[in-house]
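Interim report to the steering committee. The following record documents the input for Gamma-glutamylcyclotransferase AIG2-like domain-containing protein (148 residues).
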Amino acid sequence: MDEPERPEDPGTPLPFFVYGTLRPGEANHDLFLRDRTATEEPAHLPGAALYDGPGYPYAVDRPDGEIRGELITPHPESYTELLTALDHLEEYVPGDPHNLYERTARTVIRTTDDTPTLAWVYLAAPRVAARLRADGQLIEDGDWLSRR
């Protein structure tokens, strides 16, 4: 399987892989995504593990892990506004060492047809990831919705 090419520009329009409160049926889905998406489809992120946080999850790099979520493709006319809103929600500022999350382009796999797709993913920032690996609560099945 060929890897999609990673963008150099952090504003490049890509779909988003969501795995927590932005998933359909969760609190932030309606607040941020309602009427802004063209498609929402099941997908998974290989090479990452999911940790429970204070009301929301964190994705952390882990070669043997996999996270389940949704691939969200915004309407083109909503993209810039949505990118700004999601960066704000995730407290992500490019280059800020105090970020909780880092937005990075990763290959996710569409569940319906196993198609690899490059998407923006908010991963735990390095200092947060180190703390989670040391003493965080791993979500074993990689699906934040299963915690209910």
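The domain at 16-142 is CATH 3.10.490.10 (Hypothetical upf0131 protein ytfp). The committee is asked to note this result when reviewing the revised timeline.
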